[in-house]
Design goal:
The complex is a heterodimer of chains A (342) and B (287). With 342 residues, chain A is mostly helical. Chain A has 16 helices and 4 strands. A two-stranded antiparallel sheet of chain A has the order 1-4. The two termini of chain A are 18 Å apart. The model of chain A has no long low-confidence stretch (mean pLDDT 87). In chain B, 75% of the residues lie in helices and 3% in strands. Chain B has a two-stranded antiparallel sheet with strand order 1-2. In chain B, helix 2 runs antiparallel to helix 3, helix 9 crosses helix 10 and helix 10 packs across helix 11. Chain B starts with a helix and ends in an 11-residue tail after the last helix. The chains are: A mainly alpha (342), B mainly alpha (287). The interface between A and B is large, with 43 and 42 residues.
């Protein structure tokens, strides 16, 4: 009879280590981008990092916690407005304001979660949309921040980020890159931990997870609050780069939710590598098709529907089914130990 | 007097919201599917009405004769072709597919009709009113409310007194056993979607007569319909009517206080009901 002594349990295969080394080199190259990339390319890379962060966070909510939210734009806009309010009215440095925006975003997401967790499934999704609308309409009433037409970030505050235009652009880019790495790192470490295992159990079968003693409501609540705080962080950075905010731009369903959902669906929902692939595909499509206006969105929608119907695990899912390659190992593998007698 | 007027107008508006919501409630009851493209399908019906009235010169209400069957056929094809595949235990596919559909419909309408706001003109019906006490009540709101009553009564009749309704309730309870009894699940679902879109066609035409519309107004209609369903309680069509009326009255009162608060007041009423009675006021099934 074979016993557990004949098998070894491991998490990462050799291909993963090679992939990880390649990614580290790539990240190093990206960190040095302000020295080799032009201004437009630097901005594009920064935007890539921000969309990647939003996609990873949405994936954490929907692909792992099973909370499909069509209202994350509430936190993006909240982060943006908090940045403007904290720097204009309280005189905080932009970096401090961004950090504080994350904390306040997490605090605000608590009562929001308390309310909308009473809804389930698709009704939960629309409930998050209603919440985002409530945020939008409320901020449109705030005349101190420009009301319905919005306001611009004062020049002095924008200048206080760093000395000189090149330094400011480099700082913005490094912040975006840093946040993307931070978000992916947090997601990865969280999913490798016991809490992450509980989350995966909930995703697979809620009833069975509950019968094992996992507190479903608490786990989902923690994930929602963390994602809300980090989304506010990303939102604050987005609007620091845009320098102008208005309710329609801050809480736009198209920009912050539709595109993010398409990225995650096409890339692969429920895997950490999916959003990375999805963001690459999204930007490729955008560079080639965006001139077509509304047709671009129709194509994007059609591709997302096709992927959802025929390849529900997305492009990364197809890759994983073929090769079993994982860049971020989250599961456990079993391998028979080599026979000692031979 | 202003307040009584606001309440009455809000209540009559609730009839329109109930029409938005009836289709949504119907498919959720039969298939447990929430169609995020529902609002955009309402606006699609309105644009269809616009094309028909422009091409034939018919009155918008007369155009219903063409628009309702057209939308019903579209609903049948949509369900049979795309949405049936997504139904199952996982909630993600139907949600994401209907979300994608919503974006596609919005942008197709944008490409076809441009972003200009349009309106269906119903002639003197739009401003005709009758005076009761000190109040003027428009014929159009009364007509919308009466239509909502008739539609909901009709849907209740279909659900509980006809063979089709029995089929709906059977597949809603248990798809597999219903198939054992000889029902074609795919066909029944498609019929439910066809019926739902027929109702949205009526809602769409009334929407176009009452207010101006453009390709981007779909999601707002979805949200109003959804709020009406949740306030009223899942699985109860008369509850949806009550929910629509409460939403309309909340919006009207909000508008009386401050015109900028109209929509926000509706959302707050919804959140209040969600906080105090999460299952709605007259729930019949669990969500």
């Amino acid at each position: 009879m074979s016993t557990s002594a004949n098998y070894s349990v491991y998490r990462a295969s050799r291909a993963t280590y090679i992939g990880a080394a390649a990614v580290l080199i790539l990240v190093l190259a990206l960190a040095l981008a302000p020295y080799w990339a032009g201004r437009a390319d630097l901005r594009l890379l920064g935007e890539f990092c921000l969309y990647l962060s939003l996609a990873t966070l949405w994936n954490l909510l929907a692909g792992y916690a099973g909370l499909v939210s069509v209202g994350q734009q509430a936190f993006v806009g909240l982060g943006g407005y908090l940045l403007f309010a904290l720097t204009i009215f309280f005189g905080l440095h932009p970096l401090a304001a961004i950090a504080l925006a994350a904390v306040i975003g997490a605090l605000v997401s608590m009562p929001v979660a308390g309310l909308i967790f009473r809804l389930r499934g698709a009704y939960f999704a629309i409930g998050t949309w209603v919440m985002a609308e409530v945020f939008r309409l409320s901020f449109a009433q705030a005349s101190a921040l420009g009301g319905g037409s919005g306001t611009s970030l004062p020049v002095a505050i924008a200048r206080s980020l760093a000395d000189g235009r090149a330094a400011r652009e480099a700082t913005s880019y490094w912040l975006a890159l840093g946040i993307a790495i931070l978000v992916i790192a947090i997601a990865y470490l969280f999913l490798r931990s016991r809490r992450g295992l509980a989350l995966t159990a909930i995703r697979d079968n809620e009833l069975a997870a509950a019968s094992l003693g996992i507190d479903i409501w608490r786990t989902k609540f923690v994930v929602y609050v963390v994602v809300g705080g980090l989304t506010s962080l990303v939102g604050a950075l987005i609007f620091l780069q845009k320098l102008r905010i208005s309710p329609d731009a801050a809480f736009s369903v198209n920009d912050w939710t539709a595109f993010v959902i398409f990225i995650v669906v096409i890339g692969g929902i429920g895997s950490l590598e999916g959003p990375i692939i999805g963001t690459i595909v999204f930007f490729l499509l955008r560079e080639t098709l965006a001139d077509l206006g509304a047709i671009y969105l129709i194509v994007l929608g059609a591709v997302a529907i096709a992927v959802m119907l025929f390849a529900p695990k997305g492009l990364f899912g197809l890759l994983y089914d073929r090769t079993g390659f994982r860049l971020f190992p989250l599961g456990y593998r079993v391998q028979p130990k080599p026979d000692k007698e031979a | 007097m202003d307040w009584i007027n606001a309440i009455i107008q809000g209540g009559l508006l609730g009839g329109l919201y109930a029409l938005f919501a009836a289709g949504l409630s119907l498919i959720f009851g039969v298939m447990r599917l929430v169609n995020i493209a529902h609002g955009d399908l309402i606006v699609l019906a309105t644009y269809l009405g616009l094309t028909v009235t422009a091409a034939t010169g018919l009155h918008p209400l007369a155009a219903l004769v063409i628009v309702v069957p057209a939308m019903a056929a579209l609903g049948y094809a949509l369900q049979r072709g795309i949405l049936n595949v997504t139904l199952g235990d996982d909630i993600l596919p139907p949600l994401l597919v209907t979300f994608g559909l919503s974006i596609i419909i919005q942008n197709t309408l944008l490409e076809t009709y441009s972003a200009d706001p349009r309106k269906l003109s119903a002639g003197p019906l739009e401003i005709a009113s009758l005076t009761i006490g000190g109040l003027s009540i428009g014929y159009l709101p009364l007509l919308m409310f009466a239509t909502a009553l008739i539609v909901i009564a009709g849907l209740q009749f279909i659900f509980y007194q006809t063979a089709l309704g029995r089929a709906f309730r059977a597949v809603s309870d248990n798809q597999d056993i219903a198939q054992l009894m000889g029902l074609n699940r795919r066909h029944v679902f498609a019929l439910a979607m066809a019926l739902s879109l027929a109702v949205t066609a009526i809602a769409g035409i009334f929407l176009g007569i009452r207010t101006s519309f453009d390709p981007a107004t779909g999601p707002a209609r979805l949200i109003f319909g959804f709020e009406a369903v949740i306030i009223g309680g899942l699985g109860n069509l008369w509850g949806t009517l009550a929910g629509g009326m409460i939403l309309g009255i909340a919006q009207a009162i909000g508008a009386q206080i401050n015109p900028g608060w109209q929509i926000l007041a509706g959302h707050i009423a919804f959140l209040a009901v969600l906080a105090v009675r999460p299952r709605g006021l007259f729930p019949r099934i669990n969500g």
